[in-house]
Write a structure and sequence with these properties.
Helix content is 38%, strand content 19%. It has 15 helices and 19 strands.
Length: 480
């Protein structure tokens, strides 16, 4: 075991010297050192060894093929380039994904010679030994959540909390109790739909096709169909209620992936389904055009490294965290005067054990991954609720109410995304609607909105020009 101990000691470089390399390579076809995470590169260095003139030794991860006598051995679980290993009929194949050491000679695969197929070279499995993989403690953690968020959203104007939630989509969350893992985020936009679509397009194109599409189960590697790992599927776009219920409520993926992260634009009937509903307002949201492929490799290398970690959580911690979430849900329902049905399965607050309490657990496990922590406490669960999910729900409810109220007053399809949301909320709150009232002043609106005076004045002027506001007396404003 000396070789493996030496390998593990070298896995944990202080920093990934290849972290900022630029490449558009796909997940399974990365071949060069600059395209691999540091720990993958170390495995690649130890992948092959020539023992004698004819005898070879390979150490790697097993990928099953459609040919029951062969497996593909690769230096990383997330590569589909390596050496084919040939097993005779009386030998058992190692499990898919196992880390093994194989010693043998190089041959031409007999079955393919007999069937006149193109010759495939392989290594005979004269000996095959499996080894446990326990090297996480020796791997330097990847970029933290703040680093990923800064890298992804440097040119996106959006609340920091929303940026951190989107960054967690790339970190994802491991499965829990037989259901798929991952995170889902629903976006309700009180801003230009075009800008939101630009954001989603940017996020989608950061990851390579294999992680944001629905690739086939098997891939053709030198004429042999090899089973591809079904790990993280990352989707961005618009989804029907049926599809969202399948992923967000039933926690099932028809494509067989282990984790599914999703960001979607929602409609009123689907807004409450995702794990974290986010409302994007016009006054703090903009997207500069960028080239997402330049971020692909560092984000990919972090994403696959996070997949190695499955933070544990005790039943006691879950029970304590659930009690906290349920009490806060009741307070939210009362403070916003929501119907009791809002706590039901699939509704806005969703107090079911598989609803918001479980979503809080998903967020906590994703956060633990991003902190390279192997365990989660009740405190972590409470923090995930207090700092992420509850603030997101509050903002979502407030802005959704604002949108519904404006559409009721001005008609569906009104272009209220042109107005500063904070100023719009402030004047709707301050204008009591009493007959004969002069309405709030510019200074009162500025103070309530918490914006600079010139921003409030500019927004009020734009609203007056659009015919949704009037000035009964200079410096006083009322909604139409």
């Amino acid at each position: 075991m000396g070789v493996f101990e030496d390998l593990y000691e070298r896995l944990g470089s202080k920093q990934d010297r290849l972290a900022d390399a630029v490449s558009a390579s796909d997940l399974y076809s990365r071949q060069f050192g600059t395209e691999l995470a540091q720990w993958e590169w170390n495995f690649l260095q130890e992948f092959s060894e020539r023992v004698t003139r004819r005898l070879y030794r390979y150490r790697g991860f097993v990928h099953h093929t459609r040919d029951k006598s062969m497996v593909l051995l690769t230096p990383s679980p997330w590569l589909l380039e390596g050496e084919f290993i040939f097993f005779r009929g009386n030998q058992d194949l190692p499990p898919d994904g196992a880390y093994v050491e194989v010693t043998g000679n190089r041959i031409a695969v007999p079955q393919r010679l007999q069937s006149s197929q193109p010759i495939t070279r392989a290594i005979t499995a004269e000996s095959c030994e499996s080894f446990p993989i326990d090297f996480l403690k020796d791997i330097q953690r990847p970029a933290n959540l703040k680093d990923i968020s800064n890298l992804l959203f440097e040119h996106v104007g959006m609340a920091e909390a929303s940026k951190r939630v989107f960054a967690r989509l790339f970190v994802s969350s491991p499965p829990y109790e037989e259901s798929i893992g991952g995170l889902t985020t629903g976006i309700q936009a009180i801003t230009s739909q075009m800008q939101v679509k630009r954001l989603l397009s940017f996020i989608r194109n950061v990851l390579p096709p294999a992680m944001r599409g629905r690739p086939s189960v098997y891939r053709n590697i030198r004429g042999i169909r090899v089973k591809a790992p079904r790990l993280l599927r990352f989707d961005i776009g618009s989804y029907s209620k049926k599809r969202l219920e399948q992923l967000c409520v039933k926690r099932m993926d028809p494509f067989g992936f282990r984790e599914v992260s999703l960001g979607t634009i929602t409609e009123p009937q689907t807004a409450s389904l995702p794990d974290v509903p986010i409302a994007l307002a016009s006054d703090d949201f903009w997207v500069e055009t960028g080239n997402p492929t330049e971020l692909r490799l560092p984000i990919l290398k972090s994403a696959i490294t996070f997949q190695l970690l499955t933070p544990e959580v005790s039943k006691r911690s879950i029970d304590t965290g659930t009690e906290h979430v349920l009490s806060r849900l009741e307070m939210l329902r009362e403070s916003f005067d929501l119907e009791e049905g809002s706590l039901a399965r699939g509704n806005l607050l969703d107090a079911d054990s598989l609803g918001r309490p479980l979503n809080t657990l998903r967020l906590a496990r994703s956060t633990a991954r991003a902190s390279w922590k192997s365990k989660i406490t009740a405190k972590d669960l409470k923090t995930a609720w207090n700092r992420i999910l509850e603030p997101a729900l509050k903002e979502f409810i407030e802005l959704t109410d604002l949108k519904e109220g404006v559409e009721k007053d001005w008609g569906k399809g009104s272009r209220f995304d042109r107005f500063n949301t904070k100023v719009l909320k402030a004047i709707r709150k301050l204008d009591a609607g009493k007959r004969g009232s002069l309405g709030p002043t510019l200074d009162e609106i500025t103070q309530e909105a918490g914006v600079e005076r010139h921003i409030a004045a500019e927004t009020l002027t734009r609203m007056k020009d659009s015919g949704v506001l009037y000035e009964p007396r200079p410096g006083h404003y009322r909604l139409v």
